[in-house]
TrEMBL record:
The keyword Nucleotidyltransferase applies. Belongs to the MntA antitoxin family. It comes from Gardnerella vaginalis. The lineage of its organism: Bacteria, Bacillati, Actinomycetota, Actinomycetes, Bifidobacteriales. The keyword Nucleus does not apply. This is Nucleotidyltransferase.
Amino acid sequence: MTATTVTTINTSIIDSNTTSAKTVISEKPSKASKNTKSNHPSALTPSIVQKLCAPVARKLGVKELYLFGSVAKGTANQNSDVDFIYEMQNDSSIDCETAYIVSKKQMLTEALSKCLGRKIDLVNKRYVTQPLVNEDAELQRKAFVTEINTQPIFQIV
């Protein structure tokens, strides 16, 4: 495994209510040095997550996948779950049937869990970017968006 150099990219996750954008970080391998960390789940880093999960996610039709939470912050332990924001290729279409979306989400959850040996939490990108009609649910969504906008987010796909 090679060491990584963190670079900021143009991709943003946007809260449509506040039009604030969260800068997303992409890790690119650096050829200068070697990283001696193993692929053991307790040693998860964003670059290891990207290496293990990106091919699987692409194969399942993931358009965008972002890592956030304790693994992204570097505070995860061996019992930590792995948090992702995702968007499937057809997810943004209103015509997509709910059963299809649920099935794809379940397949993605299982595949990522198998890759990392951890429990996976998936949040659909629409939840982050589109307001909800229910007032209480919208308050919870806004609190979640505010919280994740204070944390590092890494683009995996």
